[in-house]
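Structure ticket #2291
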Amino acid sequence: MPKTKKKDKKLKIGIIGTGGIAHAHMDSYRKLGDAVEVVGGSDIVKGKAKAFFEEYDMKDAKAFDHNDDLLALDLDAVSVCTYNSTHAECAIKALEAGLHVLCEKPMSVTLEEAVAMYKAARKAKKILTIGFQPRYDPNMDLVREIVGSGVLGEIYYIQTGGGRRRGMPGGTFIRKDLAGMGALGDIGCYSLDMVLSAIGYPKPLTVSAYASNRFGTNPKYNREAKNFDVDDFSVALIRLEGDIALDFRMSWAMHMDKMGDTMFFGTDAGLKIEPAESSWAEGWGGAWDGTIGPIHLYSDVQGQLSETLIPLRRPSEDRFLSKVKAFCDAVATGGSAPIPTIQSVYNQAIVDGIIRSSRSGREVEVDLPKDL
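Resolution: structure written out below.
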């Protein structure tokens, strides 16, 4: 339960966008008990917010068809659960209204939008954190601890990504005007956050990428093929500050079992993280929106090649709940963003670079403003 500055202080939360993912936010807020109250929500689809609260039998919650009406309420914070293409607009308005913001991933569609969000949060002196719930998996912590211990030596190459053999969502996820991107923004940003958070989020320098949508646009594999205009596959080589090469792969659909494990290559040891296999049979496994599978450490011991299987940790609670709880704790105690906002900007800079490089067919530079 969130720690509040005063025992009688209850965080007042609003939800912008009451579609599918808003239910996960609502469920998590309700699990936090009396310390948190969702007092209202808004959705640009007329009547949708009202139906959302009726579903939860929340008769006192205020439902609006315009976000500005919600922001006029006495609130402490909001969850932004809208289309990717409106994350920046909604988050910036909430920050300018003096509210803390938990925004769903990806941070935005473009780097320019991400920078604007970052600057708005800094100006308002409010929390802006992005919803990378895999960050709260205890085995993600384990990976960060191993990498951060220095046991790998100097890290020079990282491979990450993951691929669903069949795992294309539909609806708003596959429309460029709403989602801005496909698999890259849906699950690709997770895998980027996984490895970048382990090495301290160095600045990205250049991106050389390729993307396609051969499965999404084919009626043989997708019933919504006529509406599909985003990526379902992408690969990229990203050069990072510190002379590190990042090899990225991501797929919603493919004729392959997986796209490889996540691997950290170091001068003293190497670390391999396999994706969990629980959903591979259905074709949805192998991407880092799921849990971590076996972790292997490779090194030399007394001149002999050695492989060590690292025991996994058992999660104590749902990762989504952990994400929402960390946000509420930070708001209630005057803390900082649970996931530093600048890290999400760097993540978005890579996503933006992959989009630009794949469209242009050439390597692109990542131009981060000097005043970040």
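Closing remark: The two ends are 33 Å apart (CA to CA).
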